[in-house]
Structures are given as structure tokens and as C-alpha cells.
């Protein structure tokens, strides 16, 4: 897994490196700018070549002759690549000046637009600005919108990790006008304008991924037909960050807008070539669940977990029990049961009221059905210690019986997933649930269920939107602590936290986005997959992480058109691709 950091943690890392004497702030800025330029040419190698000379207007293949009514365009002479670099007043802007200078040194035509000159608070940025001017560069200010001609590259170095207060909507609007102008010019000149953000798309919080924009700023105005901030500015093609990715690249709007992310190492920060370990003790860091590279094969954390399980417990794959509600509502439990079976639980049973047995029996083959006589029946079946995983919630119903079933299940102290109705049933008295939970449980709420169990945290999260830095990570961590068990807060930015502060993100964003996973029953399958892993002996955190990761991989592997039933059936293909 890769470690993600907050803005404060990144500053601490940077500070520690500078204090160690290994590197100066200015050197770091130079390396950051170099990293951005490297990333640009890695991503678009065609930009590293000179634009070919176009033959003069006369002769074959030249421009349309004037006789056809259009004046001949002056397309003679060598064409250079063009870049516009937008620089802000802090160190992110400083990185922008380095990028501008390095591109100019490679023969590019570069224009720099400056929001405000860096002040005393950012001496390294001041130095890089001076170096840009000494290299013959010029600087325009934001009230001079004189298009220089279509750029091939728009570099966003306005705000980075230092943005802590919202930007006025008027400023955001100005960005949009600039961008539209340049994009239009690029289209007219048949160039393609690529957009690159330095560190993080400007205006996003590096901690929460929220858009920090002050919609109510009195200087701002909403133009007619305003398409929304996201539509234009943050939709960058490439984001280049340094040393470690930040939480804001994966959470909230940050996840949606960070389409492609490259992490560039700033050597000299106390270690050399791996962003996976942090050089100084960084309290409370968050891990991104993702494939790791082992030799020449991409293998995932999941791969290692499975291999370990195969070696350690070869003949013991556990028995998962999925509880179902009344007749006519059994589909969700059957989906969960199928997920548990496909992920490798040795046995899976659907436990249901006697009157629902027939409904299940006609639909299930490899999965067993057991009619249970209410809470008493559940207690009885749980005397069988070979049942190692329990799932309650999908289709269980919101009646009083649900609370009793949850109580009996939790008293049995097996690996237990509570989802859907098993969470919502405790809306009025979440503390009653929290008192019963143990450390081998996983709660899997979506946004609505989270708000029912943790209303104050959900409110805080909503209230902070667009203005500050309380993030889904903070809320999930607090929830896990309060509940005393693992909480998996669903979304494209699924956050998983344990009561001891461990936290990870399963991001289905960027090139891992699976919008087709938002389909009825997908959550039930996830609950079942995690249950299957608990039954196999995974601890709660690993089961939640592994289940969430495989759930997205199954959706990616299947592709659009997916329905919930497809998810378990796709797992064997995912396992094969992982080399399991
Ligand atoms: N960490 C590392 O290892 C390295 C970090 N590096 C780079 O440094 C970046 C962080 O730099 P940073 O801390 O100077 O902050 P930055 O993101 O430029 O923005 C803050 C500026 O914007 C201003 N401002 C804020 N809000 C505003 C508003 N609403 N409207 C208008 N202005 C507003 C704010 O003003 P202030 O709040 O101080 O008054 C301040 O001037 C980081 O992202 C990376 O690119 C690399 O160079 C080297 C290695
Ligand atoms: K930026």
C-alpha cells in the first residue's frame, strides 16, 4: 500500500529534510519543478519534440490560397510549443516559475500569469521568480488577458497544499474565462491544450479533497448558465504531486478531478527511491489500497493476504452465515451469500425465518438454507463453533426482531458484518449498538446509514464542505473509535478505519473509476464478500480492505452493464489476473 499524507504531514516531512541539512527549500522547489517537467514529457512524449516546420503558403499541401476568399495564414517558419503557466502567491507558484524557466530553456514559448507576486513569506518562490526574470521571462498580471496564441500546455501552479481558505468565486470565474479563451484558440489553431496541475488542482483542499471556494463572496457573481466550477477548472489532465500523494487526491471532489496522478520523488528527503515509507514519523497516516509491484508482476495486497491464508489454513476456509428477513425480501441476503462463497468461504448458509425457506431453497444450490426459529434459532445455530463469519443487514427488515438478532449475533463474538437494516435499526439508539460491538466487527454504512448512526459527524462533514479541512477520513476514524470496531464508509472514496487509528482508502477514481458499480445490490455483495473473508480468518481490517478492493476490481473487470449478480461471478477472473 502507498502512504498518503495531509498538507501538515507533508510540511513536517519537508521541514525535517531541510533541518537535516541535506537539502534546502530552494533545492526542493527546483526538484519539484523538474519533476513536473519530467512528468509532462513522460505523459506526452510528443511535446518533447520540436513542432515540425510547416511549408510556406505556396505549393502543395500549403494553406488555402487567398483566391478562395480567406487571407493566407502566416504559417511559415519554425513553430514552437507554447505554455501558459498560472502562478499563485505561495510556493506552488514558485514551482510554476521553475517549470516556466525549464520549458523556456528547452525552446518553448512561455507566458507566465501571476495572481500576486510572492511575498516575504515565500522566499524560495521569490528566488524562483527572479530566476525566471533573469532568464528573460516576462510576467503578466491577471487583469491583462491578452491571449498569446494557443498554448499546448496550461500549467496550474496557483494554489497547492497551502490553500486553507476558500477562494472568491470571482477568481474562479476568471480562471474559467482564461481557460475557455485558450482552449478556443487552441482549437482554432488545431493544437491540443493539455492541462497540468502542480501538486493538486488549485482550489482543492489537500486534506479533504473538497473544493475551497467561497460561493457567497460579495465580489463574485454567477454568470448566466454557469456550468459549475468542476466543469472547467479542476478537470485537469494530469496532476503531478511530490513525494507522497495527498488525501485530497482521492477524497471527494479531489478524487473525481484527479484523473491522472503522478508522484515525483524529491530525493534528499532522508531516503531515496520509495514513496511507500515515510522518512519521519508521521502520526496517523492513511494508506491507499492498491497493487504493489513485486519483481516484474503487479501484485496486490490482496494477493499476499490470500497466499498467506492458503499456506496457513489450507483446509480451513470457514463457514459464513448470512441472515435473511421475511419472504419476498431475500434477494439481498442471497447476493451477500454468493459474495461470501465466491470469495472463498468453505461453506455458506442463508439463515431465514421458517416461512422463507421455500423461497430460498428454490433459488440456491451450493449455498445451504436453514430455517431458524427467530432469535432462539440463531442462538442455537451459533452453538456450532465452525460458523466463523456472520452477516446481518441486507434485506433483514427494520422490525424489532432485527435488533434482537444483532444482539445474539454479537454475543457470539464471531467475525460479523453489519450492513443496511442492521445499522438503520439502531438509528434512535446508536449507543445501544456501540455497547455490543466487538473488535471483530465491520460496519459498512453508505452516506445515509452513516448519518443515522453518527449524526454529529455527518453534520460536521456536511457543514465543512467547501470551507475547511475536516475530511471523510477524520469522520470515519472518529466513527470507528466510537463504535469500537472497523467502519467502512462507502463511496467512490471508500474510507476504512479501525478504532486504533489505522485507516485506508479504497479509491475508485481516476482510471479506476467504476460508475457502473452504483447498482442495486452491489452493497449487499460487498457485505457478503467481507463476511466470507472474516469466515476465512481474516482480521476485521484486512477483511474490509481486501473485500472493498476486490469489489471494485470485479466491477472493473466486468465493465459497464454490470448488475449485482455479476460481481461474485467475476471474482474468479480477478483472482486469475492476480495470479492466485
Ligand atoms: N512540501 C514540500 O515538500 C514541497 C512543497 N512545494 C510546493 O509548495 C506548495 C505549498 O506552498 P505554500 O505552503 O506556500 O502554499 P500554496 O499552496 O502555494 O498556497 C498558499 C498561498 O496562497 C495564498 N492564499 C491562500 N488562500 C487564498 C485565497 N483564498 N485567495 C488568495 N490567496 C490565497 C496564501 O496566502 P496567505 O494565506 O499566506 O496569506 C499563500 O500565499 C506545495 O503545494 C508545492 O507545490 C515544493 O516547492 C517543494 C517541496
Ligand atoms: K496547483
Automatic annotation (TrEMBL):
Q: Does the keyword Nucleotide-binding apply?
A: yes
Q: What is written in the cofactor note of this entry?
A: Binds 1 potassium ion per subunit.
Q: What is its EC number?
A: 4.2.1.136, 5.1.99.6
Q: Which residue stretches does the UniProt record annotate as biased composition, category Low complexity?
A: 55-70
Q: Which CDD domains match?
A: YXKO-related (cd01171)
Query: Which cofactors does the annotated protein need, by name?
Result: Mg(2+); K(+)
Q: Name one GO molecular function term.
A: ADP-dependent NAD(P)H-hydrate dehydratase activity
Key words of the record: ATP-binding, Isomerase, Lyase, Metal-binding, Multifunctional enzyme, NAD, NADP, Nucleotide-binding, Potassium
Q: Where is this region: Disordered?
A: 52-80
Binding-site residues for (6S)-NADPHX, renumbered to this chain: 91-95, 160-166, 199, 332, 395, 446, 524
Q: Which GO terms describe its biological process?
A: metabolite repair; nicotinamide nucleotide metabolic process
Catalyzed reactions per annotation: (6R)-NADHX = (6S)-NADHX; (6S)-NADHX + ADP = AMP + phosphate + NADH + H(+); (6S)-NADPHX + ADP = AMP + phosphate + NADPH + H(+); (6R)-NADPHX = (6S)-NADPHX
Location of the YjeF C-terminal domain:
297-578
> What role is this protein assigned?
Bifunctional enzyme that catalyzes the epimerization of the S- and R-forms of NAD(P)HX and the dehydration of the S-form of NAD(P)HX at the expense of ADP, which is converted to AMP. This allows the repair of both epimers of NAD(P)HX, a damaged form of NAD(P)H that is a result of enzymatic or heat-dependent hydration.
Q: Give the family per the record.
A: Belongs to the NnrD/CARKD family.
Give the protein's recorded name: Bifunctional NAD(P)H-hydrate repair enzyme
The upper taxonomy is: Bacteria, Pseudomonadati, Pseudomonadota, Alphaproteobacteria, Rhodobacterales
Amino acid at each position: 500500500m502507498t502512504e498518503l499524507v495531509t498538507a501538515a504531514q507533508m510540511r513536517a516531512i519537508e521541514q525535517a529534510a531541510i533541518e537535516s541539512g541535506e537539502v534546502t527549500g530552494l533545492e526542493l522547489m527546483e526538484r519539484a519543478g523538474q519533476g513536473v517537467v519530467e512528468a509532462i514529457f513522460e505523459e506526452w512524449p510528443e511535446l518533447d519534440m520540436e513542432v515540425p516546420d510547416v511549408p510556406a503558403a505556396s505549393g502543395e499541401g500549403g494553406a488555402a490560397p487567398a483566391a478562395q476568399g480567406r487571407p493566407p495564414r502566416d504559417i511559415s517558419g519554425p513553430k514552437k510549443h507554447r505554455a501558459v503557466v498560472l502562478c499563485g502567491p505561495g510556493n506552488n507558484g514558485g514551482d510554476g516559475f521553475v517549470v516556466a524557466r525549464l520549458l523556456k530553456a528547452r525552446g518553448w514559448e512561455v507566458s507566465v500569469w501571476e495572481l500576486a507576486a510572492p511575498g516575504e513569506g515565500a522566499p524560495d518562490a521569490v528566488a524562483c521568480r527572479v530566476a525566471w526574470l533573469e532568464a528573460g521571462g516576462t510576467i503578466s498580471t491577471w487583469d491583462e488577458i491578452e491571449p498569446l496564441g494557443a498554448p499546448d500546455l496550461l500549467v496550474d501552479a496557483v494554489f497547492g497544499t497551502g490553500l486553507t481558505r476558500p477562494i472568491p468565486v470571482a477568481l474562479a470565474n476568471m480562471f474559467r474565462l482564461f481557460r475557455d479563451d485558450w482552449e478556443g484558440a487552441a482549437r482554432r489553431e488545431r493544437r491540443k491544450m493539455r492541462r497540468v496541475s502542480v501538486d493538486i488542482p488549485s482550489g482543492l483542499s489537500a486534506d479533504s479533497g473538497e473544493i475551497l471556494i467561497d460561493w457567497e463572496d460579495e465580489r463574485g457573481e454567477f454568470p448566466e448558465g454557469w456550468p459549475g466550477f468542476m466543469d472547467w477548472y479542476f478537470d485537469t489532465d494530469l496532476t503531478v504531486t511530490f513525494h507522497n500523494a495527498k488525501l485530497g487526491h482521492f477524497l471527494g471532489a479531489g478524487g473525481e478531478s484527479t484523473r491522472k496522478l503522478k508522484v515525483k520523488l524529491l530525493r534528499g528527503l532522508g531516503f531515496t527511491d520509495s514513496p511507500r515509507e515515510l522518512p519521519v514519523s508521521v502520526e496517523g497516516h492513511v494508506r491507499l489500497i492498491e497493487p504493489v509491484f513485486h519483481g516484474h508482476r503487479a501484485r496486490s495486497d490482496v494477493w499476499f493476504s490470500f497466499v498467506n491464508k492458503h499456506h496457513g489454513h489450507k483446509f480451513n476456509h470457514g463457514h459464513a452465515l448470512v441472515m435473511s428477513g421475511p419472504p419476498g425480501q431475500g434477494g439481498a441476503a442471497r447476493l451477500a451469500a454468493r459474495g461470501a462463497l465466491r470469495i472463498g468461504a468453505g461453506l455458506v448458509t442463508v439463515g431465514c425465518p421458517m416461512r422463507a425457506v421455500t423461497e430460498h431453497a428454490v433459488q440456491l444450490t451450493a449455498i445451504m438454507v436453514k430455517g431458524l426459529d427467530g432469535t432462539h434459532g440463531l442462538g442455537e445455530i451459533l452453538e456450532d463453533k465452525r460458523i466463523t463469519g456472520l452477516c446481518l443487514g441486507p434485506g433483514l427488515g427494520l422490525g424489532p426482531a432485527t435488533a434482537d438478532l444483532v444482539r445474539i449475533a454479537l454475543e457470539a463474538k464471531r467475525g460479523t458484518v453489519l450492513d443496511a437494516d442492521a445499522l438503520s435499526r439502531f438509528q434512535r439508539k446508536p449507543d445501544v449498538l456501540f455497547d455490543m460491538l466487538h473488535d471483530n466487527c465491520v460496519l459498512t454504512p453508505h452516506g445515509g446509514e452513516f448519518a443515522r448512526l453518527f449524526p454529529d459527524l455527518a453534520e460536521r462533514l456536511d457543514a465543512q464542505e467547501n470551507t475547511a479541512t475536516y475530511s471523510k477520513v477524520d469522520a470515519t476514524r472518529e466513527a470507528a473509535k466510537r463504535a469500537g470496531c472497523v467502519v467502512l464508509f462507502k463511496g467512490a472514496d471508500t474510507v476504512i478505519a479501525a478504532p486504533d487509528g489505522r485507516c485506508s482508502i479504497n479509491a475508485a477514481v481516476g482510471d479506476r473509476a467504476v460508475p457502473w458499480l452504483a447498482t442495486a445490490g452491489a452493497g449487499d455483495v460487498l457485505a457478503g464478500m467481507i463476511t466470507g473473508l472474516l469466515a476465512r480468518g481474516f482480521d476485521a481490517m484486512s477483511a474490509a480492505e481486501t473485500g472493498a478492493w476486490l469489489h471494485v476490481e470485479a466491477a472493473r473487470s466486468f465493465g459497464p452493464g454490470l448488475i449485482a449478480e455479476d460481481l461474485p461471478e467475476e471474482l474468479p477472473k480477478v483472482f486469475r489476473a492476480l495470479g492466485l
